[in-house]
Amino acid sequence: MSRSTPCSGTSRKRRPTWNPTSSPRSAAPSTSATERTFALPSPPPYRDVSLPVGDRVADLLGRMTLDEKAAQLTAPTAPAVDVHEPPSTGWGGVVAALASVEASPREIAAAVNELQRKHVEDTRLGIPVLVAEEALVGLKIHGATVFPDAIAQAATWDPELIERMGTAIGIQMARTGARQALSPLADTTRDPRWGRVEETYGEEPYLVGSMATAFVRGLQEADAETPLVATVKHFLGYSASAGGRNTESASIGPRELREVHSVPFEMVIRDGRARGIMPAYVDIDGVPVTGSREYLTDLLHGELGFHGLVMSDLGAVNQLYTKHGTAHGDAAASAQAVQAGVHLDLVPRLTTHHLIEAVESGLLPVEDLDRAVSTVLRTKFELGLFERPYVELDAVPETLDPAETRALSRTIAEQSVVLLRNEPVDGTPLLPLDPDTRTIAVIGPNADRLLGQLGNYSYPVLESMAKRFALAADPTARADEAAEFAGNTGPDQARLMVESVPVVTFLDGIRARARDATVRYERGCPIQDEDRSGIPAAVEAAKSADVAVVVVGDQGGINAFGTVGEGLDSATCELPGVQRELVEAVLATGTPTVVVLSHGRPYSLKWMADSVPAIVTSWFGGEEAGSATAAVLFGDVNPGGRLPISFLDFAGSAPLPYWRAAQTPPYIEGRAGATFPFGHGLSYTDFEYRDMEIKQPEVPTDGAVELSFTVVNVGERAGDEVVQVYGQDVTGRTVRPRRKLVAFRRLSLEAGEGARITATVPASLFALWDPREGWLVEPGKIKFFIGGSSAQVRLRTSVTLTGDVHRPGRERPLTSSVSAVPVDPDVETVTRSAASFRAAGPLSGDNTVLEWLEHPIGGELLRGLLQGADEETLAPAFGMPLTQMAMYSGGRFPAETVDRLVAEVHAGMPAPEGGPAR
């Protein structure tokens, strides 16, 4: 087959072609110059916007040569390829074309217009190119707003806020010419040692799916006139790699694959209508996802209903040959990926010839090639690129970091700050700081370091790294600059090499907020290097201060120049370098100390939780992290962030999801638990939960449970509570998680204000995956736990799912709805059902501990006696009679207490039907 011959299906006949400057057909000889003058070419059908997209795709596909088809499946990346000089066939997509232009927004847009012009006017068929950029923490181009990292976004527990961020990013994309975002991640984190935790929305599939869906919805619908593609990654199991090591194999069974890892992708596909997916680098049980028809066609397309664009991760197709060894060469790797379901190959070097070789050698059938090309073309038609390939330069804003997006970045940063610990100093919680504080020592390697508060996929970090790699390969580079890279890739030698947007450091934020105080700064130590020479000066600064704020943590990077990020995994999850020594030295001065964590992965902080009075995490808070954290420290903002991932006692217990943390046997070194559990976060006020009510105690397996309860701010200042509803399917044909998030709502309440919360939870959220039968909802008991974290349970109840096993299929509901209505906190909002109490019956000391816990009156009494002990801590005693548990309590629970509890239950029970009141 000639590579210049148009091909479609198995046909190899030459078809008519069309060039924007010539007739699509060989016209019959004209008889006069006049006729030739007025013989205008008619546009081909694929240019006819009135035709269905499928017809336009088929027409264009039939006109394409093999070279042109192969070009449409290629997406080179700018740091490695000069994407602004395309070949005569053009490319399907390009990545980082905007990031490579350090200029004003209008100049960036003009460069994209010129790139489009070369595709639309200088190629035979005029197919526009799909311009893609990273956008996880803001559009990754010069001068665009840098938002907090994804793990910080998740800590807000506010999908509506993240949808606003997605909209802001999408508008910037539309104005500058980017049409595809390589964001967000829908990976469910399984191991805190994995360096890419910072790019995820945490460890809980429901939270991950909710946040990713909000981002996608906001971005793709940002501009009604300019559709965009959000590319959700990394499908599938990337975050479950062995040992938390990036791109290692993942061992995942079919149930965990569906019930944990697929769920967020299913949510973002069905509820967010995501138009793009990026497969993971990993292999699952020996099958690389990028080359797997089982995962990319049968699961992604067949089960999850995705019909959009699949773009490989950078170099992942080539890895089928070079790493996984499932292909015997580059051409075979290209064929394997296309046949699996990959449409665009994101490449660090041009590989179009591999596709051509695959077709010509018979490795890749033409019909499979055409299927992939058709998807790329259909995406471009649906985006309107053929009609509107160019950006209107007059509509490009003067700045991509205006006041309103900086304000949004600060709001997200403020809402993401999590108060982990706040113990009294001289009888008063250390935070918020006393407004009369006169001297503040600001200490630590991240206190005044821009690289210490920006995510690894932010423009300043990525472009600085690209420049370092370029310098290392440039023989004309200055020796001192090139030496920064050669042989030394530590974070402490790194510096920002691009000026993009103003960044407010923690030192800046504290100085601006505490204008009347003396603020002294000492770095203390580096991020990773074991240099202790600065610790004595930090100790002296702390001794002379009323309070010390020690800012420690990570530095984002990719494979180098960082302590966290892609390719930067940790064996211990300890603070890097000698930062712990710095904290302990400051503590030893006796000066009240606040530790601020600026980081990308959760740490093992049991030592810190046992000694430091106040700890907050800002994660990587972006360009306004310093202002946001200062506002929290001084009480201008009441912290309302909650952990989207647990902080384990020690990393060696990972993977340890929150629903197993309380029931896992300990190691000889101590318990396998969480120092700060999933959902944890303190406030400067207090919240009370009460008046639990279930609409129906029995619900059909195809129905929904409706729970209502009241939350009241009983403190003296306004604050935010994140209401969290967890559920447990008590008995199933497979092992069910002891607790899973099924609903949540961030709630703002003034002091003394109350709200009535109603959560409607579809029974399908408790569906289990059976490899033979698919999704099933079984009848049986469902327990609910409501409170302020996965370990802080304030209310409990249960319902029974009734009827036959329900098979909800692919269209099952995936989300709950939660409403909040203001109520008078002084009025009880629920009338207890006498019938439900009668059904429960009385209790005696011979009833088991579990029977007591599940009783509407006895449960509250027993938990009160045990000071709110969680059910998991009592699990070994579930089958014991209450009298036996009292006997084994060592005198802490005397026998007469059992008699008192029994009497109180009897007194609280309603009268029998027609009988006297008890």
Automatic annotation (TrEMBL):
Limits of the Fibronectin type III-like domain: 721-790
Biased composition (Low complexity): 20-34
Biased composition (Polar residues): 1-10
UniProt-listed Pfam families: Fn3-like, Glyco_hydro_3, Glyco_hydro_3_C
Region (Disordered): 1-51
Keywords: Hydrolase
GO molecular function, one term: beta-glucosidase activity
Gene Ontology biological process terms from the UniProt entry: glucan catabolic process
Family, per entry: Belongs to the glycosyl hydrolase 3 family.
Known function: Catalyzes the hydrolysis of a non-reducing terminal alpha-L-arabinopyranosidic linkage in ginsenoside Rb2 (alpha-L-arabinopyranosyl-(1->6)-alpha-D-glucopyranosyl) to release alpha-D-glucopyranosyl (Rd). It is not able to hydrolyze alpha-L-arabinofuranosyl-(1->6)-alpha-D-glucopyranosyl (Rc).
Name used for this protein in its record: Exo-alpha-(1->6)-L-arabinopyranosidase
Taxonomic lineage of the native organism: Bacteria, Bacillati, Actinomycetota, Actinomycetes, Pseudonocardiales
